Amino acid sequence: MPDYNLEYFPEPEEIEPVAYCAACERPLYRDDTVYLLQNRYFCEDCVADARRELEDE
Ligand SMILES: [Zn+2]
Predict the structure, then answer these.
(1) Environment of ion ligand 1 (residues, CB < 5 A)
(2) pTM of this prediction?
(3) Does residue 12 belong to any structural domain of this protein?
(4) How many domains does the chain contain in total?
(5) Range(s) of the domain holding residue 47
(6) Tens digit of pLDDT for each residue in 27-46?
(7) Closest by Cα among 3, 42, 51 to 23
């Protein structure tokens, strides 16, 4: 019987998120595309909705 010696890839180094999306609360990292609207950070997925909302105000 083979001796299974499972090796996992090492965890990627934990990188501190620079901010959290104000809409979906996803952590945003330095390499991500981050949008700053009225001092709130948004991810790429949420910025369109956020812009629309802000324009309605
Ligand atoms: Zn988001």
Answers:
(1) 21, 23-24, 43, 46
(2) 0.66
(3) no
(4) 1
(5) 19-56
(6) 998 888 899 999 999 999 99
(7) 42
